[in-house]
Amino acid sequence: MKYEISKATAPAMPNLGKGTECIKLLLSQASKVMHEPFVPMFFPVLGAHMSGTEFMYPDNSWKEPTGMMANLVAKSGDNKGQLSNLVEAICRDFRQHDEAETKRLLEWSKQKQSRGNNKDKPDRPEEGIWFIPNDTTNPAFLLNAMALEAHGGRTQYINIPEVEMADKLCGGHKQVSQMLRNIYDRTRAGALRATAEGVTGNPILRACMTISSNPYSTRKFYKYELFNGTFGRVVFSYKPRGTREGRIPRQGSYPDEFYQKLDEYLVRLDICKGRFIIRQLNKLIDRLAQDMASLADLTDDDVLFELSHRSLVSAWKAGCILWVLNNQTWTKSMGDLVEWLVYHDLWSKLQIFADMLKENDYGASETAKTGPQNMLDLLPDTFNQAQLEALRTSMDKTIEGTKAQLRQWLHRKFIEYCTQTGIYTKTELYLKGVKDETLNIKH
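^ thats the sequence. predicted structure below, dont judge the formating
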């Protein structure tokens, strides 16, 4: 692991080299302070342009780049609104399609109303809307999913400017958990609905979603979803408040050259069909999964380990999109960006929810939030079991977990044990390789 996730400073995004040109193009129209927060938000929008494409995950399951959800979190007036301009640029073709589709729906509605009760009614057009309004109701969302499924399983996209508006899409806050999980897992809606025309279908929910919110509303919205799997399925991108510079950040002017180049990338997403295996990406995800286990062992943090599972899947989907954007070839720079996406997601979640994940204290102050700490880093190079027990006690962890933690450190060759002295010693692997290059978790 190259990145720190325990500090208030965000993990620095790697240089965007070969294979990430589309991301650089999009960032050219955003102010510099929003570059890192925006990058994770691009992939649900780009993923919505792909339909009929599957990739093999390292566990041998086939997944589509759909069900991608990302939540941008920043304080009010901190330039979140720039994202909507970029979304509109990426989804210009969606808007053109939906405008034509809306005209067809209006014409159908007029014909239906103009005919008497005894005359045959025209069938409702079933093409569906690709970029649904942010105030779409749950019945309309499901009806649109049915129409899109009938036409090959197109993914619908929604950009929600305030997180509370997701309640309307999900059918109320009590339904948020089930709806978001169904979207992420690409499962069926789970319920039939009665209408004037009869019983509706039960479509597979193919959707991508971006959300913007401030820290307070984000914590309030997700506070009951932290431990049921819903929270982990959403990628978070947090922007701390910057310094008081007294300067209005500039954003792009969107020249014609920008749109021409962007359209070249979007065509690659639209025409990509079939099944693919990206072996370099899968190898990377396998390695990152091992890193996540090591991080969990060093911090003795099961919640962090569980969150990392879906952070890996979300970053892997982003990697699939990068591969298609780069004419189906893989580069080291793409791998570096995928790795950063994993850590940025985990860092963002800990910045926003660390105290809630630890204590379920929904009213904790900003200063009470801390990320996971590398416990081995906090111990001297040579230590005994009693020292680790004292450290665990100071961190509100049980003494009973000490032996299990020592076993894990020994298994991963982070430490060695001397039976004659009862002393544990940090290994050269940890001090020179793991700590300095792989497990860089400083305090």
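The radius of gyration is 24 Å.
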